[in-house]
Each structure stands twice: as C-alpha cells, then as structure tokens.
Amino acid sequence: MSLAVRGVFWITLYLAVVAGPLVFALVDAPQGRDFWTEFSVALGFIGLSLMGMQFVLVARFRSVAAPFGEDAVIQFHRQMSYVATAFVLAHPVILFVTRTELLALLNFLQAPWRARFAVVSVLLLVVLMVSSIWRRRLRLSYEAWQFLHAVVSTLAVLTALVHMFLVDHYLDTLWKQLLWGAMTAGFVGLLVWVRVLRPRQRRRRPWEVVSVVPQRGEVSTVTLGPVGHDGFDFAPGQFVWLFVDRSPYAVTAHPFSLSGSAERDDGAVEVSIKAVGDFTGTVRDIAPGTTAYLDGPHGVFTPDRNEGPGFVLVGGGIGIAPLLSMLRTARDREDRRPFLLFYANRRVQDAAYLEELDELSGPLDLEVVHVVENPPDGWSGETGRIDDELLRRRLPARFERLQYFICGPPPMMDALEDALTRLGVRAERIHSERLVFVT
Fold it and tell me: What is the pLDDT of residue 327?
C-alpha cells in the first residue's frame, strides 16, 4: 500500500471514528426533545469523540504518522484540540441559553452526579487549554507542562465518559451501550499501551551516555550506546524522544534530531542539543555512563524517502542537527550527488560544527553558504537572512529539480517555504521539520 493510499485510509478512519458515535447514538433515539437540545447533544458527542482521538494522534504510532510525518500529526493534534474544545463547550452553553432552568445544575453540591462529572470535565478541559496556550506566561516548564497535560487530559476524557453513561438518554439499548463500552475499552487500552506496555519495551532496551562533547553556540553532542542490544536502524534526518537518568515510565520526554551518520556500525547514535531550557541547560553536566532510553526513530524528514538528483539543505541554529546527519550519512555512503547547504546563524561563533562542515566539502560534492545576521568585521560571506534575493543568486541551474530540506525556527521555515514556492519549487519537493510541539 502506497503512502498516499495509507494517508487516505487513516483520514477516512479518523472521520469515521469521530462521527460514528453520533450516528449510532441518533439511531432509534428517544423522541420528544427540542431541536436545540438535540443539536447540543450532537456537538457533545462529536467533541467527546475528538477528545478521545487526540490520544491516538500523540501515541507515536509510526504506521499512522508515516504518510504525514510525526510533526504534522502533532500540529494537527494541536489544531484539533481547539476544535474539540469548541464542540464540548458549545454543548452546555446551548443548553443553558435555551433551557435556563438547567442553570441549577451548576450548583455543584446539589446537582446530580451526571452534572458534577460534566462540570469537572469542562473545568479540566479549560485548564488543559489555558496551560497549553499560555504555558510561558504561566512560567510552566516544559517538563511540568507535559506531566500536567498527560494527567489532566486523561481525567477530562474519563469524566466526560462517566457523564455520558450517567445521562443514559442516548444509551437506552444494549447494543449502544456495548458500542460505547468498546470505545471506552479502546481508550483505556490505548492508555495502557502508551503508559505501561511501551515503557516496558523501552526498559528492556536501555542505552547509556557514552560522551557529551561541547560545541559552539551552546550546543552539545550527546553520544548514546545500546546496552545489551544492537540499537536500531534509522534514516538520516529522523528524531527520537529521549529519557535521561529517569524511569522509562516517566511522562516527560524530549524530542531531539539524530545528528550522527545512519551508517555507524557500532550501534551508537548521536543527538545535538542546544541549551535553551530547563533540561537542555543541564545536558553538559550529564556524566558518561548515565542510563538513558530512546523512543524512536520517528519522522519522514529524510532524503531516503525523498530521492532526487541533488539536495538543498537549509538550517538555522540547532536546525543543523538533522541536516548534519544527512551529510555524514552521504559521506559514509560515498554519495556523489550535489549538496548545497545554507546555514544561518546570528553570529559566526554560534555556528556549531563549523570546521566539520568545511571538512565534509572534501569527500562530498558540497557547497556551504554561511549566512550571518550580525557579521564580524571583515566578514566576506552572506549577511542578513536567507530570502528570495539570496536564493536567486546562490541556487544552481535547474534548481527546481532538487529536493529541499529546511529545519530551524518556525518563522524561518515558514518564510523559506513561501520563498521557494515563489521561485517555482513545487510543494512536494519542499520538506520541513518542526519539533516545536508546544509553545
């Protein structure tokens, strides 16, 4: 089955699961309710289905993400979270506006349990959205947010399911109860897989930190070696979720691009980490021998999946990591196709792996174009930012036939995707990697 067909299949299945409970609930539904009540219930069913499917989107199933890319699936998860919240909140709002007597259900102490669970579920959903949208304003660390997100989202869905079963108006027949029971069991099974079974698999395949080597720009190269197993195969440009010095059952993990060659024969892998947060700021202090666990490899940001006669790589800051993996792998494979690398940094001293990139120009047909926003005195290279004018000057003839890989800050990637499109590069030849899973 081709990736395009698989993509259509997963989208169709997603829509069926989201809309299916509503359809089955309305089959032979009890009569006598007004339109607005029925409409609000319909929104509630769809919202609950969307909430449940959010867990599938972040479960890191490679077969699901393969047609789209893990980062695209996560971005879809974020957008659909807003949609799910809108549907869920619309359900009680419409009821309270059209049937004001139901406002009495907000008296938590005197309300029936079905209403109490509904109130708790909505409040949890509000906490979930507020903590995600305004995480930085609330000064929540990524680690604290990830733990809060996992716990609160689980409780929000569970309390919503209890509310639905207690209402019982649309679950008046055995087959409907069995249907929702099966969906609830599937949701619980998914939690067991993500929080128990998969971590158990990680526990059986530990890694250890072999070395931590400082680089320019507050970047560290962390080399990890497999312990008691052969490691895994990966494609250049993919990424992993990293657990360091903590249980494989821990909720918090961090995504990092693999920066080493995919052709290493010792099973070890390398990740390049820039000190920008609570965890990343401590990476240089990690001692060799520290136990680690990896979840991966993930992602479709790789030349192995997007073959072409040549490649243009564009990296900004730590976005050089997956591009470096591509170049190192190409060197080890003795790939003779041309590579053109645009590497953007604020200052020359921020450019990690500067010397190695120059050395790679020997075994590879590689041209490196450094673009510095704040150049030093005497700088003769490119300055400012990578824009249409710079691309027109530096791209080779017949550049439309090449494959383009962009990794860096999201605004830079957005601007470059637009610039390349204006230059006539087709969208299917432009590939970007966004590991910014929370703002």
Answer: 97
Q: Give the other-Cβ count within 10 Å of 203's Cβ.
A: 12
Please give the angle made by the CA atoms of 382, 385 and 389, to the nearest 5 degrees: 75
> In angstroms, rounded to a whole number, what is the distance separating the alpha carbons of residues 169 and 181?
15
Q: What are phi and psi of 342, to 5 degrees?
A: -100, 120
Question: Long-range contacts made by residues 74-81, C-beta under 8 angstroms, separation at least 24?
Answer: 74/437, 75/434, 78/437, 80/50, 80/53, 80/54, 81/54, 81/128, 81/129, 81/132
Q: To 10 degrees, the CA torsion angle through 277, 279, 284, 289?
A: -170
- Residue 247: pLDDT over 60: yes
| Separation between Cα atoms, residue 329 and residue 265, nearest integer Å | 12
Region 391-405: mean pLDDT is: 93
pLDDT, position 170: 65
Per-residue pLDDT tens over the stretch 202-231: 999 999 999 999 999 899 999 999 999 999
Residues 437/149, Cβ–Cβ less than 8 Å: no
Token code pair at residue 227: 């312990």
DSSP H or E segment with residue 249: none
The span from the CA of 260 to the CA of 294, in Å, is 15
346 vs 54: CA distance, rounded Å: 37
What is the secondary structure of 53-92 as a DSSP string?
HHHHHTS--HHHHTTT-HHHHHHHHHHHHHHHHHHHHHHH
| Residue 409 to residue 317: CA distance in whole angstroms | 8
69: phi > 0 → left, psi -120 to 50 → alpha, else beta; which? left
For residues 328 and 333, give the distance between their C-alpha atoms in angstroms, rounded to a whole number.
9
**Alpha carbons 30 and 166: distance in angstroms, whole number:** 16
pLDDT in tens, 63-99: 888 888 888 888 898 899 999 999 999 999 999 999 9
Cβ neighbours of residue 99 under 8 Å, at least 6 residues apart? 36, 37
d(CA 158, CA 150): 13
Residue at 5: amino acid letter: V
* pTM, 2 dp: 0.85
Summarised one tens digit per residue, pLDDT across range 1-12 is: 677 888 889 999
